[in-house]
Amino acid sequence: MKLTFLGTGTSFGVPVVGCACETCRSEDARDRRTRHGALVEWGSKRLLIDTPPELRMQLLAADVNDVDAVWFTHAHADHIHGIDDLRAFSFRGGRDVPAYVPQGTAGYFHARFPYIFDAAVQVAEGTSKPHVRLVEVDPEGRLDVLGRIVEPLPVPHGAFTVYGLRVGALGYITDGKALPPLVVERLRGVKVLVLNALWFGRPHPTHFNIEEAVAAAQSIGAERTFLTHLTHRVRHGELEESLPPGIAPAYDGLTVEIPE
């Protein structure tokens, strides 16, 4: 199984528009962070995690020609507003792209993208729109996704519940503030763990900061942990040097092989 980090930034991305801080001016390519997205592959199957606004450019950069399904962690703009880029896959494949969404959030997608989900909205002849089939996920259930068992990892994110996922030896969580008991139990035995982390020091009401993410990672004890959803307040090189063994910052384009 293989994990590719397509985007490792927060909703602002890095560089931040109008900012002249050291990270935003950095010449280290690892400090350029597009909005959050990832791709998990096993065999010939490709599961996309979120559709950020830069999705088209991310897929081109990673040489991704197709996806088979999407796992939406939650319905915030930086995680879903690239959904129109799924049009290339549904148009070329002549099929609906299945999209797994947290329980109770299908209405957000219908309200924001009626041209996709309202059958009464018809596109003009000779044009196209994405064909996406939403599947609401039971947070306590397990489901078959592209032939693999996937377990949702529901974590608190302010008023939202974000659904990470466990598939095989990979545990993947973004935009979380804590690991509830169900999630800790489902993460037992993972070899690769991904957690969100914003910055050093100051706590955030809906996200882990770096210290909190490190503590959470150490409580799980995966062989390797990668931090994502990073802000412009941390530079990759400095963060890499400060982290304990087995924990590292992710960056756009990083690929990780995960043993089965």
Question: Outline of this structure?
Answer:
Helices cover 20% and strands 28% of the residues. The protein has 8 helices and 14 strands.
Can you give a write-up of this model?
By secondary structure, this protein is α/β, with parallel strands linked by helices. Helix content is 20%, strand content 28%. The protein has helices at residues 55-61, 77-80, 87-93, 106-112, 114-117, 181-186, 210-220, 236-242, and strands spanning 2-7, 37-42, 45-49, 69-71, 97-102, 132-137, 143-145, 148-157, 160-167, 170-172, 192-196, 224-228, 247-249, 255-257. A seven-stranded mixed β-sheet has the order 6-5-4-3-2-1-14, covered by helices on one side. Strands 7-8-9-10-11-12-13 form a seven-stranded mixed β-sheet. Strand 9 and strand 10 (170-172) form a beta hairpin. The protein is globular, with a radius of gyration of 18 Å. The chain starts with a strand and ends with a strand.
Based on the model shown, name its key terms.
7-stranded mixed sheet, 260 residues, alpha/beta
